[in-house]
Specification:
Elements (H helix, E strand, L loop, with lengths): L1 E7 L1 H6 L1 H13 L2 E7 L3 E6 L2 E6 L2 E2 L5 E4 L4 H9 L3 E3 L2 H7 L2 H9 L8 E5 H6 L7 E5 L8 E4 L2 H10 L4 E6 L6 E8 L2 E9 L13 E4 L4 H12 L5 E8 L5 E7 L5 H6 L4 H19 L1
Parallel strand pairs: 1-2, 1-6, 6-7
Antiparallel strand pairs: 3-4, 4-5, 8-11, 9-10, 9-11, 12-13, 12-15, 13-14, 15-16
Helix pairs in contact: 2-10, 3-4
């Protein structure tokens, strides 16, 4: 039986208890003993010129795999240096948890996206690159947090007080506000897609009071998703698209630590069964090569 760590920050573990239990159950069905490890319990470092990991200050025996459910690319990189198979990889974590880096990568594919400027708090207060209204995003925001709709100077000043990250993205907002499409992928498989909408907020996030319905990608949209999948080595990820005025999909961002609340609400797809099958298949392939 394979061994695995499911790594969460404490506050997120409390809020995702049922999801964690589902993870552990599906792992067991795929012949893996999956253990919840809190990020706060982990210390990493170097001992006798080799990377080591401590849990509750004791040097830990290493698992076969680590499923990292927190945005911590350095931790993922350290686990990989220790010989642990990490999902998602440190490369995916580093790129996809930085919205600017994500857009740099995707821009090479000529996939539609809104115009944007990468800036910082000081620059944007002096001069705005676009006419009002526009969107301001923190580089590492998640789940609709750190995203602001700016209609005027007053909104901008209020936003600057709230923003904690020095680096930001300013985006045009010439799209259908309060709507987006999230595509769930496991490895190289498109598992499903949901259309999210919110009549009361410019953000479509389900947990912000939005609604969701199953969305069927057409051939052109599937091709766009496959292009993105081909330049990343995803385990489980969510690829988000804004919706243009004519209904066209416009790339927005990639969720590395994606949940499946919306997909579970609108379908019977067992995405964690697929994810754990993908992980154990990768471990078997690694063992065969070794």
């Amino acid at each position: 039986m394979y061994s695995g760590w499911l790594i969460y920050e404490k506050k997120d573990a409390v809020n995702n208890q049922s999801f964690i239990e589902w993870f552990i159950e599906e792992a067991h069905l795929q012949n893996m003993a999956l253990t919840l490890i809190l990020r706060e319990e982990i210390m990493i470092g170097i001992k006798q010129n080799s990377p080591v990991i401590f849990i509750n200050r004791k040097e830990a025996g290493l698992p076969d795999a680590a499923i990292v459910r927190t945005m911590d690319p350095f931790l993922s990189s350290h686990l990989e240096a220790c010989g642990v198979s990490v999902f998602n990889s440190s490369h995916v974590s580093r790129i996809c948890n930085n919205k600017a880096l994500t857009h740099q990568y995707i821009s090479e594919l000529s996939i539609p996206m809104v115009d944007m400027v990468f800036s910082n708090r000081e620059q944007i207060q002096e001069k705005q690159p676009f006419d009002y209204p526009f969107i301001i995003k923190e580089m590492s925001g998640k789940g609709g947090t750190g995203v602001y709709y700016i209609e005027n100077r007053k909104d901008l000043q209020a936003c600057m007080v709230k923003i904690s990250h020095p680096e930001i993205i300013i985006q045009r907002c010439n799209v259908q506000l309060g709507k987006d499409v999230r595509v769930f992928v496991v490895g190289k498989e498109i598992v499903g897609a949901v259309l999210r909408g919110n009549k009361h907020d410019f953000r479509a996030n389900f947990k912000l009071g939005g609604n969701a319905s199953l969305y069927h990608l057409n051939d052109r949209e599937r091709d766009m998703v496959k292009q993105i999948m081909n330049i990343f080595d995803f385990g489980l990820a969510g690829i988000d698209f804004l919706i243009g005025y004519n209904g066209e999909l416009i790339f927005n961002e990639i969720e590395d630590v994606v949940g499946s609340r919306t997909l579970s609400a609108v379908s019977n797809i067992n995405i964690l069964n697929k994810y754990m099958h993908y992980i154990t298949a990768n471990l078997k392939s690694r063992d065969f090569k070794n």
